């Protein structure tokens, strides 16, 4: 198995986050433009970003997590991307979020390709999943360019927007266990 903590793609430096990255990560995650399609996800304070950074340490202790993304060796963090296991789910979660000034350059797809390669190396039997809102066309394109296929869509449980539709993409056909886990995770429960 490869050590995926620090890798290079054609244009990107992907590195395991460290405490010194906190300010850049917070700038990206606190920017309303980064959350245009899901405003309730925005980090409103530094403590929320610190929680994400702390969780990243746990992810990387298991062999893979989300990278800080740079487009030059000594440049600032311009995004966060990679695969990690979230909340004990039976899949890798593919994640990508970039500052608005670098969107449209294909960086998300480039980082996602590296993330899929890493996930398939670390635990190849664990599927890679991306979930996003249907109105986020750029995120859909990234998932599709990465070779993921739409396997589920429906109302987005817990979203402040009652009309929000969640899309779930997967890197393979889901077996019965993955399908059941997706239904449990993404199907809204009964309303009271």
UniProtKB/TrEMBL annotation:
<dbReference type="Pfam" id="PF13302">
    <property type="entry name" value="Acetyltransf_3"/>
</dbReference>
<dbReference type="InterPro" id="IPR000182">
    <property type="entry name" value="GNAT_dom"/>
</dbReference>
<dbReference type="InterPro" id="IPR016181">
    <property type="entry name" value="Acyl_CoA_acyltransferase"/>
</dbReference>
<dbReference type="InterPro" id="IPR051531">
    <property type="entry name" value="N-acetyltransferase"/>
</dbReference>
<protein>
    <submittedName>
        <fullName>GNAT family N-acetyltransferase</fullName>
    </submittedName>
</protein>
<feature type="domain" description="N-acetyltransferase">
    <location>
        <begin position="11"/>
        <end position="148"/>
    </location>
</feature>
């Amino acid at each position: 198995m490869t050590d995926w903590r620090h890798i290079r793609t054609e244009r990107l430096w992907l590195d395991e986050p460290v405490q010194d990255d906190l300010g850049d990560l917070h700038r990206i995650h606190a920017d309303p433009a980064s959350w245009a399609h899901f405003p309730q996800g925005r980090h409103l304070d530094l403590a929320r970003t610190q929680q994400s950074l702390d969780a990243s340490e746990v992810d990387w202790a298991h062999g893979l997590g989300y990278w800080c993304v740079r487009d030059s060796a000594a440049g600032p963090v311009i995004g966060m991307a990679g695969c990690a296991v979230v909340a004990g789910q039976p899949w890798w979660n593919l994640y990508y979020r970039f500052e608005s000034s670098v969107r449209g350059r294909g960086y998300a797809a480039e980082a996602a390709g590296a993330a899929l390669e890493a996930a398939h190396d670390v635990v190849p039997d664990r599927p890679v999943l991306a979930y996003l809102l249907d109105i986020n066309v750029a995120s859909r394109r990234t998932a599709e360019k990465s070779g993921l296929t739409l396997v589920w869509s429906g109302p987005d449980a817990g979203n402040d927007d009652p009309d929000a539709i969640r899309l779930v993409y997967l890197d393979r056909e889901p077996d019965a266990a993955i399908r059941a886990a997706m239904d449990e995770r993404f199907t809204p429960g009964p309303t009271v």
